Every structure is written in structure tokens, then in C-alpha cells.
UniProtKB/TrEMBL annotation:
It comes from the Bacteria. Keywords: Signal. The keyword Signal applies. This is Phospholipid-binding protein MlaC. The keyword Manganese does not apply. Residues 1-20 form the signal peptide. Pfam families: MlaC.
């Protein structure tokens, strides 16, 4: 189920990359809608290259997704209470490893890309005093049941631009699920031990798997 949710997360947020001159990144809802066609077209166009070299998906993720994902903010939220008393250098190592892990994880899930249709919910009203907003979408993946999700975005106070950092599905956030998964090792072995695990996971080659 988590793999499915990550795939849909990628499918939406990966759609963020397009020329800055063409997209107003201060309007998160319109930004997501405007760039989706272009990014999905790239995935379709590069399928032969991807089939020949699945690791090319890491390049696509690096170039198209990561500039629009606030991986640092997500990593710090994931660490949560483990930040208290932590060495800043260790935290920076974790942030870097977490970024590498995200790139590899998203690339791996994209091997299951099947051109899902995306239906956006109503545009949310933006409160100028708030730095967090959500955009609801429905993933049409027939013959499977549709998937209803909400993507969380955070506004940079200085630039006014938005970046995605989390996804909510069935009441559970992606960050929260990873907090539960890694909290034990973070508590027992520390930040650097988890960072090393993430780095090793990120180094694994991308492989095609049978679709669920």
C-alpha cells in the first residue's frame, strides 16, 4: 500500500518541473496543474531509455522532482524529537542521506508507472498568514479503486514559493509512516546509523518489478 501511495505522490509532485518563466510557483494549485502534462510527456517519451537503463529514473527524479520537494524540511520533521541535542553535522549528514533515499525510492516506484489519470479537487483558498496548504487529488487507476489523497505544501516566507513535503492518505502521512519505521533505530543507535542505512538503500540499482 505504501508503495502505491508513494507512486501517486511522485505522479503529482513530479509534475512540478517546468521553466520558471512559465509557472507561478506562488500559486501551488495552478502550478501543479500546469506542469503535469509536460512531465508525464517526458516519462512517456523516455520509456525506451528507462527500459534499457532503469537507473535513468534517478536522473529524472533528480532533475524534475527534487527541485520542487522540500527534502530538508521533510527530513527535519521526520527526525522530530530526535533533533534535541543532536550534533548539527550529524543532522546535515542525515538530510543528505534522506535526499538520496528519496531519489532512489521515487525512482524505484516509478518503474510501476502506468499513466494514471489525475483529477484535482477544488482549489483551496490560500490564507496569507499560513505557510502550509493542501491540494486534494483523486487518482483514477481502473480497474482498481480510485485513491483519494492530499498533498501538503509549505511556502517559503522569503520567496513566497511553495514546495511539497508530505502526502496524506487514509489519514496517515508519508512522513509519519517513516517516523514509525525508523524511530526505534534512531533512539537506540542514533542519527548517523539511520543515515548510513539510507545511503546504502539509495545506492541499490533500480529494478523493474511485477506490478501489483
Amino acid at each position: 500500500m505504501l508503495k502505491k501511495l508513494v507512486l501517486t505522490f511522485i505522479s503529482i509532485v513530479l509534475a512540478f518541473q517546468v521553466s520558471a518563466a512559465q509557472v507561478d510557483k506562488t500559486q501551488p494549485y495552478e502550478m501543479m496543474k500546469q506542469v503535469s502534462d509536460r512531465t508525464f510527456n517526458r516519462l512517456k517519451a523516455e520509456q525506451p531509455k528507462i527500459q534499457q537503463n532503469p537507473d535513468h529514473l534517478k536522473t529524472i527524479v533528480e532533475e524534475e522532482l527534487m527541485p520542487y520537494v522540500n527534502d530538508k524540511y521533510a527530513a527535519l520533521k521526520l527526525l522530530g524529537t530526535h533533533l534535541k541535542g543532536a550534533d548539527r553535522k550529524d543532522v546535515n549528514v542525515f538530510i543528505g542521506s534522506f535526499r538520496e533515499y528519496l531519489i532512489a525510492s521515487y525512482a524505484q516506484v516509478l518503474t510501476q508507472y502506468t499513466d494514471q489519470d489525475i483529477v484535482f479537487g477544488p482549489e483551496p483558498a490560500l490564507d496569507p498568514s499560513k505557510t502550509i496548504t493542501g491540494v486534494k487529488v483523486e487518482i483514477v487507476d481502473a480497474p482498481r479503486p480510485n485513491i483519494k489523497l492530499e498533498f501538503k505544501l509549505r511556502k517559503d516566507k522569503r520567496s513566497g514559493e511553495w514546495q511539497a513535503f508530505d502526502m496524506i492518505a487514509e489519514g496517515v502521512s508519508l512522513i509519519s509512516s517513516k517516523q514509525s519505521e525508523w524511530s526505534g533505530k534512531l533512539r537506540q543507535e542514533g542519527i548517523l546509523a539511520v543515515a548510513q542505512d539510507l545511503k546504502e538503500l539509495a545506492a541499490k540499482p533500480i529494478r523493474f518489478e511485477s506490478k501489483e
